[in-house]
Description:
Layout (H helix, E strand, L loop, with lengths): L1 H22 L3 E5 L4 E3 L4 E6 L8 E7 L3 E2 L7 E4 L6 E8 L4 E4 L3 E2 L1 E3 L6 E4 L3 E2 L5 E6 L7 E7 L6 E2 L7 E4 L3 E9 L4 E2 L6 E5 L1
Parallel strand pairs: 2-10, 12-19
Antiparallel strand pairs: 1-3, 3-6, 4-5, 4-7, 7-8, 7-9, 11-13, 13-16, 14-15, 14-17, 17-18, 17-19
Amino acid sequence: MGKMLCRALGLLILTILLWIGQIQNAVLTIEPNCSTYYLGESVSFRCDMNEGEDNDWEYQINRKSQDHFPYNSHKSYTLEPLYKTEFQCCGRRRIFNKTKCSNTVFVTVSVNKPRATLTAGSTTIPVGGSVTLSCSVETSAGWKYRWFRRTSDTSEVSIDNEENRDISVTQGGIYRCDGVRGNPGFYTEISNDETIEMK
């Protein structure tokens, strides 16, 4: 009898410990997931309770424990503009009147809009060859790139279907690029010009 009681008590304690552990396992994630964001950039937060069905929960995003958005049924929330750097989410389960909160996520926000940098493997295209151009944005990730070309005689046009960081060009001209990420898109300052000549 004593062993059965101890075993039952042990199971009860284990169940309580597991339940307490579940209270703390909400997870807040950010999209795009970057080391640095910029003032005015749009960021999406996703709050996962990791317990029960999604429709059992209402969600709330907190900024620096001061600004609280009302509970609602959407687990994702887009914030624009971004200007505070410490976030947490909480969930409230309707059926059991149960609330739990996530980890705190710290976000680095820069007030300076980034500028894209264009570099060229060579500034002269050999006969029948090409030159590789690279566009980059320092200190952060998640960028797609837009490319532009003009000449001394023609207006600037975008190069279609190019979102890559590196492109190969076979035409001379004056090239530049910028970076974009997020939805709606957040654009960097446009890069320096790079003049490419035919040999």
